[in-house]
Design goal:
Pdz3 Domain; 2-enoyl-CoA Hydratase, Chain A, domain 1; 7-stranded antiparallel beta sheet; 6-stranded mixed beta sheet; 25% helix
């Protein structure tokens, strides 16, 4: 079972897999995958995704021709992306792309629910954000979500459920209403909620027995890297750390590099290519290189989270525990199209410090673990010893 954040998923299933993965988990946590900055914007790539490169001009030309003929430039661009074979390429309306950028800032419009799909296909609420419309309505973790606006969600992928919850782009603004069918034990009821502007908290910290500190990073939105560094600095001296990246759909690559800097004393984090030109990402110096560290991963660990995992594993800094990660290691660059929409297209791929490609392969953990992953991590930490 894999948790997905209900308030940050794509609004239109038809927009394709890219939107699904961009917003998946983005706000149970943050934002997903990776794109390079737009021309004129400085900084390293913001996230990562996959396939053929060098088709920006074809997509732009298709949009321009459609606009000149009085047709939809966005639809023309979408057809061009589809023809290109770029699996993670996507075209966003101006409003959708603005929302994506807001998500990277840790803001979103929604009701404050996280959910997961159970083995029987039912959808269960896995978390309710404090202070959200869902919390105010009394919805609890463990409640079953049966319908959204009268449409059954049983058996649907969580991404589709979220698309139903969010509605169309024009409708999913603060103050709009969504009706949820819910069950708790033998009680069934309908709850009408109004979406609200909410903030995410992608990094949470708690303690386990034996002075172990668990740092859970749900996604890499702005500021999350510094939050990880702060959590490491505040952990008890000599205490082991579990860096929980399960279900982390990615986000800003720069934030993942900052998080890596909490555990590395400089050095290579990853390399990536942009249309054949090789570039490198390096950690800052001064990280804690002594404290025992275990990284937890699963099939929902994607993109920038895989980049971080690969760096810690290749450089011998962490023992990676869990199951194989998703395998999303390509780089996108956004470009503005005639009419104001944005095309985000693949321009290259990143590799771990040892030169491993993640795209389509994922990262294999050092130790396989499923339901007992946290307990396995504690056992590993005890074996790594006390650096004090």
């Amino acid at each position: 079972m894999s948790g997905r954040d209900l308030f940050c998923q794509p609004r239109r299933i038809g927009r394709g897999a890219a939107l699904t993965l961009v917003f998946a988990g983005v706000l149970a946590a943050g934002a997903a995958a990776g794109t390079l900055p737009e021309p004129g914007r400085k900084g390293p790539p913001t996230s990562s995704r996959s396939t053929p490169v060098g088709h920006h001009s074809e997509v732009t030309e298709a949009a321009a021709e459609a606009m000149a003929d009085g047709k939809s430039p966005m639809e023309a661009a979408e057809r061009a992306v589809s023809r290109s074979g770029d699996r993670w390429g996507a075209v966003y309306s101006q409003g959708e792309y603005e929302e994506f950028e807001e998500a990277l800032d840790g803001q979103y419009t929604g009701v404050g629910l996280w959910a997961r799909r159970e083995r029987d296909g039912s959808i269960e609420v896995s978390r309710v954000q404090a202070g959200s419309p869902a919390a105010a309505a009394g919805i609890r973790k463990g409640d079953r979500l049966r319908s959204v606006d009268g449409r059954s969600v049983d058996g649907r992928p969580v991404t589709e459920v979220v698309a139903l919850l969010r509605g169309d782009a024009e409708d999913a603004v603060a103050g709009t209403e969504v009706s949820l069918g819910l069950e708790r034990s033998t009680r069934a009821w309908t709850e009408k909620l109004r979406r609200a502007r909410l903030s995410t908290d992608p990094v949470t910290v708690h303690k386990l027995a034996g002075r172990v500190t668990v740092i859970k990073v749900a996604s890499f939105t702005k500021g999350s890297g510094d939050r990880v560094r702060q959590a490491v600095a505040e952990a008890p001296r000599g205490a082991g750390i579990v860096l929980d990246l399960r279900g982390n759909s990615g986000g800003l690559v720069a934030e993942a590099v900052t998080a890596a800097s909490a555990f590395l004393d400089g050095g290579l984090v990853a390399t990536y290519d942009v249309n054949g030109v090789q570039k490198a990402l390096h950690a800052d110096s001064g990280g804690d290189t002594v404290r025992p560290l275990v990284a937890l991963v699963d099939g929902g660990t994607m993109s920038a989270a895989e980049l971080l995992t690969g760096a810690l594993q290749d450089r011998g800094r962490a023992v990676v525990v869990g199951s194989r990660t998703f395998g999303k290691g390509s780089v996108q660059m956004p470009s503005r199209l005639p009419g104001g929409s944005v095309a985000e297209l693949t321009v290259g791929h990143y590799r771990t410090p040892s030169g491993r490609s993640v795209d389509g392969r994922g990262i294999t953990p050092d130790l396989e673990a499923d339901d007992e992953a946290v307990q396995r991590a504690e056992t590993v930490l005890s074996g790594l010893g006390d650096p004090s």
